[in-house]
Amino acid sequence: MTSLSRRTVLRGAATATVALPLGALALSACSRGPSPEQTLADRLVPLASAAVASAAAARLLATTEPKQATALGQIATIRDEHAKLLREEILRLHPSSGHAIVDPSASATPSAAPGSSAPPPSPAAPAAAGLDAFKSSLSADAAAAQQVAIGTSGFQAGLTASVSAAVTSLKGLLP
Could you give the CA distance from residue 137 to residue 160 in angstroms, rounded to a whole number? Predict the structure, then answer.
């Protein structure tokens, strides 16, 4: 039987003292699923996509509804600002989620991000159907933002609640 020297035991203890925390740190870095930031960013993606889509729909409607062109222009401008703010927050939370924002000019059928609990954004198609369909899509956008606001906290809750309130008030610009 070999005996261990005191030096060997101390060296082994020192190695274990350094190796175990590093190993635990490495294992804890392994993700078991999406981070809370990614999950939240994924919930904001459909709202940003809806903002892009309704801004595009408002611009399209302004060409076919000249009496409402001013109001529709204001709606498009405000929805563009919503899209910008939501995109910035998505990129801050989880930069790789930003690519999931659907641009209606790039895709004929926008859809919600995979695993997202928010409803899909309203497509630009309601613009072709008229003001009533557009107002309905704004209502759906406001409801989706409200649901995200209810399920979040902090800045994101304030942002999405503000978007919901703004979209609800934008409907008042239309007859």
Answer: 17
